[in-house]
Design a protein that fits this description.
The protein has helices spanning 2-13, 19-22, 27-40, 92-100, 116-124, and strands spanning 48-54, 57-65, 76-83, 107-112, 128-136, 139-146. It is an alpha+beta fold and 153 residues long. Keywords: Acyltransferase, Transferase.
């Protein structure tokens, strides 16, 4: 999972995130510690995690979490959804999204901006930008939300 996470960051964020972050030799170990904690620590019991495979190779990862703010209108927040570039367009992203957020659940996510491919994918699944922005790891992000019962494919 850590290797896919790092590979997808490098494929997706090159030019948006500093090369020093993407090429840091410690990044794979840091992502491995992250996923080990997510999958084993009781604190993350409410998370939903999924992987996509093609044959015996991992090609995608996803995770949703309970909302970080109790005053929001959604019940899940997508925190990770990455598919290796070679598997874009295969349906792996759609399957991962559905595995971690039920179709009827109102949800939110943060997506890099610009990242037109990802933003188009999320719009296709009923998410719309709500005007909120933030900067995470030097990357500008916009928040997208999906109300209960929004049209999804």
């Amino acid at each position: 999972m850590a290797r896919v996470h790092v590979r997808c960051w490098q494929e997706t964020y090159r030019g948006l995130m500093p090369d020093a972050v993407l090429d840091d030799p410690g990044l794979p170990a840091a992502r491995e510690r992250f996923w080990t904690a997510v999958l084993t620590d009781e604190r993350y019991r409410g998370n939903r995690t999924a992987v996509a495979q093609r044959g015996d190779r991992l090609i995608g990862i996803a995770m949703s979490v309970p909302p970080l703010d109790g005053a929001v209108q959604w019940v899940r927040q997508l925190s990770v959804l990455y598919v290796v570039a070679a598997a874009h367009g295969t349906g792996a992203g759609r399957a991962l999204l559905r595995a971690v957020i039920e179709p009827a659940e109102p949800a939110a996510l943060w997506v890099a901006d610009p990242n037109p491919r990802a933003q188009r994918f999320y719009r296709k699944h009923g998410f719309v930008a709500d005007g909120a922005t933030q900067t995470e790891d030097g990357v500008r992000e916009i928040r997208m939300v999906r109300a209960a019962g929004s049209r999804r494919r």
